[in-house]
Amino acid sequence: MADLLKPGALDLFLFFVVPGFVSLSVYDLLVPSARRNLSESAIQLVSFSMFNIACWYWAISLMAEMRLRESHAAEYYLLMFCIVVISPSLLAIGTYRLRTSDVLRKFVIHPSPTPWDFLFGQRRVFWILFHLKSGQRLGGYYATNSFTSSFPNAEEIYVECLWRVDESGRFCEAVPDSGGAIVRADECHFIELFDVKEET
User: Fold this and answer.
1) What domains sit in the chain, N to C, each tagged with a CATH number?
2) Taking 90 as the threshold, does the pLDDT of residue 121 lie above it?
3) Percentage of the chain exceeding pLDDT 90
4) pLDDT tens digits for 152-181?
5) Which residues are within 8 A (CB) of 132 and not within 5 positions of it... i.e. 6 or more apart?
6) How far is CA 161 from CA 36, 173, 197, in A?
7) How far apart are CA 122 and CA 60, in angstroms?
8) Is residue 1 predicted with pLDDT exceeding 80?
9) CA Rg, the chain, in Å?
10) How far is CA 2 from CA 7, 10, 16, 18, in A?
11) Nearest Cα to 142, choosing from 161, 155, 156?
């Protein structure tokens, strides 16, 4: 254990493990996914770390030449925090932005694992018409106070307000004192969504 606390071993850990761990953790916050097994993601973790080191090698070399750790410890650790934590976080966010950009979406697979996650990840406002397997239809208003589950959990949706619908499926009025409802996707034949022009 003591060997791991030596400066050389700590530097190796900081440069080759921590940036990759930070990048993968931030990326997993942006893209719904099953719980990651870090031992199986070791190559990915090290690859992110190596790319991060390559980007900042000039700064790391300069700090070593200036012996910044001994002469200006506070500045050294601040710069190290930026290199080891901030930079990998921005790398993960940038990777996500690129993969979801309109340009790259023509050439690479979108990172969202399901259409459910893709749609509700856009945080749009909808009128939702649930066609239940029981034959009933249920209207709901999905907005900023609504919520949906994400992969790998079962597809569930919370609509913040229930609405009465007529036989043709037209939204008539909000259910008085409605606190919303939670609906499971597997309880529905299908779910219709309609854009909201103006929030009510």
Assistant:
1) 2-106 (no CATH), 115-195 (2.30.30.100)
2) no
3) 26
4) 888 999 999 999 988 877 888 888 888 899
5) 138, 187, 188, 189
6) 35, 10, 17
7) 39
8) no
9) 24
10) 11, 11, 19, 19
11) 161
Interatomic CA distance for residues 152 and 192, integer angstroms: 22
**What pLDDT is stored for residue 8 in this prediction?**
55
Task: At 3, list the tokens.
Answer: 């060997």
- The pLDDT tens digits for 51-102 are 888 888 888 888 888 888 888 888 888 998 999 999 999 999 988 888 888 7
The tokens 């397997």 sit on which residue? 133
> What DSSP state is assigned to residue 83?
I
Position 184 scores a pLDDT of: 93
User: Distance (Å, rounded) from C-alpha 185 to C-alpha 153?
Assistant: 12
Is the pTM value of this prediction over 0.70?
A: no
Residue type, 78: L
**Pick from 189, 196, 133: nearest CA to 159:** 196
| Positive or negative: CA dihedral 179, 184, 190, 193 | positive
Question: Which amino acid, one-letter code, is at 183?
Answer: V
